[in-house]
Design brief:
The chain is mainly α and about 140 residues long. It has one domain: TerB-like (Orthogonal Bundle), CATH 1.10.3680.10. The chain has helices at about 1-10, 20-35, 40-55, 60-75, 80-90, 95-105, 115-125, 130-145. It comes from Roseovarius pelagicus. This is TerB family tellurite resistance protein.
């Protein structure tokens, strides 16, 4: 299943991927950001679960199952570009801003700004077509919440 998903992400896109694949791509991207600093902490895992539950109207068990699937996908995926391309093609700009906010929520879940996490969120923002100003404003909204 993971190989099929990655194959779909790598294939030339003639039309946007379906919402199920987009959801898995976003989930895997959240996991990738959390793992970037080498410390996949329980507070980051809990934050991912809450984001997935709220974003996709899932109960706790379903959010945890989606995260577990995303962890396997993330571990198998060679690069971040595939996730971001899938999300960019499937999600409107305003919703991509919400994706950036979700990534900042995960990156800041431990209460610290890590240079590696900052770098990957900035890179993903660029890949998603979200400008630096909008990404910075998203980070500020998350930090103030």
């Amino acid at each position: 299943m993971i190989a099929d998903f990655l194959k779909r992400l790598a294939a030339p896109q003639t039309e946007p991927i379906d919402q199920t694949d987009a959801r898995l791509a976003l989930s895997a991207l959240l996991v990738r950001v959390a793992r970037t600093d080498g410390d996949y902490a329980t507070n980051e895992i809990a934050r991912i679960d809450r984001i997935l539950a709220a974003r996709y109207n899932l109960d706790t068990s379903a959010a945890q199952a989606l995260r577990a699937e995303a962890e396997a996908v993330e571990a198998s995926a060679p690069d971040t570009v595939r996730f971001t391309r899938a999300i960019k093609d499937a999600v409107a700009y305003e919703d991509r801003l919400a994706v950036i906010e979700a990534l900042w929520q995960v990156a800041l879940a431990d209460g610290e700004r890590d240079a590696e996490e900052d770098a990957i969120v900035r890179m993903v923002s660029s890949f998603l077509g979200v400008n630096d100003r909008d990404s910075a404003l998203a980070r500020q909204r998350v930090a103030q919440a």
